[in-house]
């Protein structure tokens, strides 16, 4: 027996503004880069990207805000490679990172 029916209609993504969460102070180089990217994505997606500045804690405050947001794809982290490298380095003593040199 076949069941005739339709799946619930889903809205196309994005259907509301997207929050770009960044760990940099307004006016900083990272902030300027985030705003340039947001402007270009506004044009290509046809939806607003709101830059949400959550500076402090070496990026932990911004990362925490995204981690605690609804898992709906509307809160996106904006990070730079230097922050990712810094977090990785913080896990190891300096001698380990330098091959044991002191």
Topology:
Blueprint: E1 18-22, H1 29-45, E2 49-53, H2 60-67, E3 75-77, H3 81-89, H4 94-97
Parallel strand pairs: 1-2, 1-3
Structural commentary:
The protein has 102 residues and is of the alpha/beta class. The protein has a domain at 28-94. It is built from four helices and three strands; from the N terminus they run βαβαβαα. α1 (29-45) links the parallel β1 (18-22) and β2. The model has no long low-confidence stretch (mean pLDDT 81).
Give a brief rundown of this model.
The chain is α/β, with parallel strands linked by helices and 102 residues long. The protein contains 4 helices and 3 strands. Helix content is 37%, strand content 13%.
Structural class: alpha/beta
How much strand?
5-15%
Percent helix, as a range, is: 25-40%
Order of helices and strands: EHEHEHH
Number of helical stretches of at least 4 residues: 4
How many extended strands?
Answer: 3
Low-confidence runs (pLDDT<50, min 5 residues)? none
Radius of gyration: 19 Å
Categorize the overall geometry: globular
Largest sheet: 3 strands, parallel
Features:
102 residues, alpha/beta
């Amino acid at each position: 027996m076949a069941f005739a029916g339709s799946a619930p209609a889903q809205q196309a993504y994005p259907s509301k503004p997207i929050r770009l969460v960044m760990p940099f102070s307004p006016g900083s180089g990272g902030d300027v880069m985030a705003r340039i990217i947001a402007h270009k994505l506004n044009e290509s997606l046809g939806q607003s990207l709101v830059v949400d500045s959550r500076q402090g804690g070496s990026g932990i405050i911004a990362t925490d805000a995204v981690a605690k947001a609804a898992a709906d794809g509307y809160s996106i982290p904006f990070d730079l490679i230097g922050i990712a490298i810094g977090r990785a380095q913080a896990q190891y003593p300096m001698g380990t990172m330098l091959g044991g040199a002191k």
